[in-house]
Structure prediction request, 251 residues.
Amino acid sequence: MTDRIYQSIVAKKKAGSKSFGVLIDPDKVDPSKIETLVKLSTGAGVDYLLVGGSLVISNHLDEVVVQIKNQCDIPVILFPGTPSQVSSYADALLYLSLISGRNAELLIGQHVISAPFVKKSGLEIMSTGYMVIDGGAPTTVSYISNATPIPSNKNEIAMCTAMAGEMLGMKLIYMDAGSGAEKPIPEDMIKSVAGVIDVPLVVGGGISTPEKAYRNCKAGADLVIVGNAIEKDAALIREMSAAIHSVPVEA
Prediction:
């Protein structure tokens, strides 16, 4: 296992450049739609393609990853609903630990069970402190995790949670409002969290416009993930990518 992809994320953060990831849910795409998403992503200069979802019930995770890998050179990162959602055909895995909740199964329990298989997969493993933020409506991730999201107006809780995750050795902090969130994560919360950690900050959930993606990056997000909005309108990939990559590098 190497840390090539993680180091690329870190290098971009150090350079002050922002990254864009498109999330593809295996349950919501067919081969023709994958082809369209990959072509648009390649043309738009998307940095990473994430594959996964809170529920993967279609049982064709491998096929989706292989199709993507056959069509482009964009790194494929697994974004699993559980640590057992693994495909050795991908490049890397976000090994998510739900640090915002108190469900021991998603903090460490399922990881213990999946660890031997994950280690054998040969994937680049990126330990990720996963923080679910209240997006204004119940989401699949909040239901499946059986954990109360961090209130969107409690910046201090988010800050302390992120700091704890970093000090516990997490390589990434991922703040997520959940797929289809009514309200994305407030920019002041993103700014507060970005100001107290040194590891890259990933933000997703409820980001439906290029303007919002841009503002999230300006607030401190290093990598913005968009899935649900693109499922509704794949053409947004170009606009989202342009907006994220246009964020000026701060001196």
